[in-house]
Amino acid sequence: MAGMMRQVVLAAYARGNPRPSDFRIEQVPIPEAGEREILLKTLWLALDPLIRFSIDEKLLSGATHMQLGEVMFGPTVSEVVASNHPDYAVGDFVEGRTGWREYAIVAPDRSDYRGPPRKLDPGLAPVSTALGALGGPGQTAHEGIVTVGRVKPGETVVISAAAGAVGSIAGQIAKVLGARAVGIAGGPDKCRALRDLGFDAAVDYKAADFADQFKAALPDGADVYLDNVGGDVTLAVLPLLNRGARMPMCGYIAYYGVGMEGPGPDHLPGFYRHIMAKGLEIKGFAGIFAGQKGLDDIAGWMKQGKIRFPEAVVEGLEAAPEAFASVFSGNAHVGKLLVRVADKA
Ligand SMILES: NC(=O)c1ccc[n+]([C@@H]2O[C@H](COP(=O)([O-])OP(=O)(O)OC[C@H]3O[C@@H](n4cnc5c(N)ncnc54)[C@H](OP(=O)(O)O)[C@@H]3O)[C@@H](O)[C@H]2O)c1
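^ Those are the sequences you sent over. The predicted structure of the assembly is below.
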């Protein structure tokens, strides 16, 4: 397919929270599919917070480290527009990690990221859900609530970054399991959206009376805390955790801009006291563990109308840098933040 395409490259390593100027848009020729390769047209791009680790000047533990000028990596849903591979036909939809670009070549036999691109069934749900409820965020929410959190009926579950991709699904899973779900999010609109999704309570951590509102939302304390955030939000949750509470540690976005050392003060002594005195069970997890079981559960609950999959869409590849920066600096997006790169061919 002759012609030019756009791609977004890393222009500068992020210092603190990422800024749109850390990225640059380039025009390059659309590549040709070689032997046993497929050409993918990007339809949807997901802006996952964990990408922040990879664009730090220093190599942070466990992260892919990007070079300046490299195309930004990231999960995508694409359409196959040319195929020299017997397992993929033109018109198939796939989920992969082809990055912030309009077209990409993939060699399924050599694909080293969690295997070859995953084929999607557009009859099951909109293909964009492969990046949200029926993809990594959904599996993460399932892992946090079902496997690590072991949420039981009647328990109270607190979820931070509750209006995000993981949190919005996690709260709904907690409800399916018969628990009480309390979300923490930034701003009254996000809190309203969480109540609309079925959360029993939602509290705005940016409100001046957050501490009072939060205590009022937890008359019997909390049995499980799905921590997506760390920082001041988690410091506010710790005193309200019940004895033996479980704390699946899913993310710590409040610290993603500070490398391995925080700006201080050091809250570890107080943190240790809560862990020991209350017998907290804290378990970190990273990557995808629930596998197909988690996705099957969520697909089933979606079919029964028990789980909705909010998506916030920004238009065009050129919107990606600003939208990504907004994940760390405040935005109005509820659910999975997606860039609509193109419509299907
Ligand atoms: N362990 C794993 O395998 C795994 C997998 C996926 C994601 N994660 C982690 O899970 C967390 C949520 O991911 P996601 O995909 O749901 O993200 P997301 O949809 O992009 O939502 C992130 C939200 O975090 C909130 N936030 C940002 N900075 C904050 C701060 N300093 N204090 C409090 N809240 C802040 C913002 O919402 P507000 O407007 O409400 O502040 C933002 O919209 C992230 O930490 C992510 O890295 C972990």
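The mean pLDDT is 94. The pocket of NAP is lined by residues 48-50, 136-137, 140, 161, 163-167, 185-186, 190, 228-229, 231, 233, 250-251, 253-254, 285-287, 327-328, 330-331, 337 (CB under 6 Å).

Shout if you want it in another format.
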